[in-house]
Amino acid sequence: MKINHYLEEKMLKVYITEEIDHHTASIIRTRLDYEISRFRPKKVVIDLEKVKFMDSAGIGLIIGRFKVTKSYDGILEIENANEKLMKIFTMAGLPKIISFKENKKEEVI
User: Fold this and answer.
1) Going edge to edge, which strands form the sheet with 11-20?
2) What is the pLDDT, as a whole number, of residue 2?
3) Residues 6+ apart with CB under 8 A from 106
4) Where are the beta strands (DSSP E) in the chain?
5) Per-residue confidence at 105, pLDDT binned at 50, 70, 90?
6) Do 28 and 16 touch, CB atoms closer than 8 A?
7) φ and ψ at residue 23, rounded to 5 degrees
8) pTM of the predicted model as reported, rounded to 2 decimal places
9) Helix (H) or strand (E) segment spanning residue 22
10) Cα distance between residue 62 and residue 53, in whole Å
11) Which of 2, 63, 77, 94 has the most other CB atoms within 10 Å of its CB?
């Protein structure tokens, strides 16, 4: 599992790779909470493009970061969740409270 992030103006963008499960969620949670409290961004974007698997711990992770971000008057946005992840998020009702975006990559012809 790998987590990369960068801060641009008042936006914290986080890239998570591989799996979000019971074992990795606590590591990701600790790291994200630290970065959110450190920078207090107005917007936190979590990019899930390289996440291939997520269980219920991942839903808890996302809901928790939504609450932490909101406590600093920020917003949380999820980018590039694959179809499987979107099914899980939709069943959990997350699209009602969190913005989901697909980052379309331009093709070079």
Assistant:
1) 3-8, 11-20, 43-54, 75-79, 99-101
2) 66
3) none
4) 3-8, 11-20, 43-54, 75-79, 99-101
5) low
6) yes
7) -75, -40
8) 0.88
9) helix 22-39
10) 14
11) 94
